[in-house]
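Q: Hi! First time doing this. I have a protein sequence and I read that you can turn it into a structure. Is that right? Here it is:
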Amino acid sequence: MKKPIAEFIGTFALVFFGCGAAVIAGMGTGPTAIDVLGIAFAFGLAIVAMAYGIGPISGCHVNPAVSLGVLVAGRMSVGDFIAYVIAQVLGAIAGAAVLYLILSGKAAGWNGGLGQNGWGAGYLGEYSMTSAFVFEVVGTFLFLVCILGVTHGRAPVQFAGLAIGFTLVVIHLVGINITGTSVNPARSLGPALIGAAANAKALGQVWLFIVAPAIGAVIAGLLFREGCVLSPDE
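A: Yes, that's right. Below is the predicted 3D structure, encoded as structure tokens:
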């Protein structure tokens, strides 16, 4: 159970730190407020921390799309994939639940948001569903290209955590105003489920943040399969 427990903790940390920065620090004013750059770095640095903390145990996927890409690339078993996804979803739900508990103690100013992903009228840049879908597919694909490349046996793995974390920062800088940036079905599902009472729309839109990242991950995984286009020469 070491690997699933590590994935649970890692995904918990990603949601707690990333979504927590977006909602708690993002609600601040003056010196306590952070902007898009701060939120992007919160997600990216959470991945860096977990990459070095749990990476030696589970590889620090903390994302069902990453696990799917690794599975398609032929680098993990179906059994491990299922265990990872269950642990990741539970970790994201737990992270969102702890955030809810903390935020519910705020005297005023909290509208029930937990950093849910979405699109359309009233959501950040008010981008269309097509824009959201395209971004999530492309963002996840590029994220997996980085992950599958830097974690190959011939890559300098001591820098993998930094490369992956900073790639996630860049993806968030582009995507926060479009979808809030998911590229991670668990990260989207946890806050959507826990915050459903205050924001039922997010739960109704969560399908896109499952389907689109899965498509991007499968494409990247296929390209990195042994003997395929991006598979490094041995």
